[in-house]
Amino acid sequence: MHKKADTHYPIHDHLAHRWSPRAFADKPVTAQDLGSLFEAARWAASCYNEQPWRFIVARREQQHEYQKLLNCLVEGNQAWAIQAPVLGLGIVKKTFSMNGKANNFAHHDLGLATAGLMAQATALGLHVHSMGGILPQRAAEIYQVPGDFDVLTGFAIGYPGDPDSLDESMRASELEPRTRKPLTETVFSSGWEQPAAFLQT
Question: What sign does the dihedral 51-186-153-176 (CA atoms) show?
Fold first, then answer.
């Protein structure tokens, strides 16, 4: 299943084809491909090159580890994420290693690393669905995450599957076209909510 973005300006195919399915095929992700995804994340930009991101990953082949990570998702996400061959958590270090001061850009930098991971996934025919619906306290306890780190996001990785495997409400969402706000609502120049002059109307 493909849901290419209907863009106003041309963008790279890997970005146009990136989307977040809930239906995943029963097909494993190779160790080589997983390594490539996290290599792409490794080379993301970060403030002072702190690289504040950490990832915990579980593959379905490791049943115990997979179930442990699945239990860190809220119930609604568990319902569909259990189809995915790979599950993960995104974690951030809250302080700079060089001076112990608060790193106010850590969340931003985890986002950059995750975006790189997603772009690499799309290039390999894979898809990633990020989740805010996780149980961070449970995850921190299960994985003994140090206090200087926050468990922030979850994600599922795999090949897109059959939307009919989802319940009715999720299936409808899966089949809907992708939409975004127009650039004129998000890119400003001379003042707040004044669209940048370079944008086509």
Answer: negative
